[in-house]
Amino acid sequence: MTNIKPTAGRQLGITHLRIRGMWTIEHPNKTFSYLNINYQANKTLRLFALIREAKYYSFSSEDRARLEASVNSNLSIKNVQIKSPDNPVKQVSAKLISYQI
Prior knowledge:
The protein is an alpha+beta fold.
């Protein structure tokens, strides 16, 4: 890259070049494949929520009771151990909530 002046592209005086690394993440099915999620391909709608147990218990007891009372063949709540996003060597208790119709 020759003949480039440091002020090139700054004619307006309001722009700056900022270069940052780009990160990509894997699809959740691949990332959490070790959970053996019961993925029912014949269902038209599949919703999955994976939340830390501490977050789950931060919801009011009334909301948790209402959700847990709704468990049926379409809705399930499962206790799982997931890799910590902060340190993948450690395990974190979590809840896998799935709704498939």
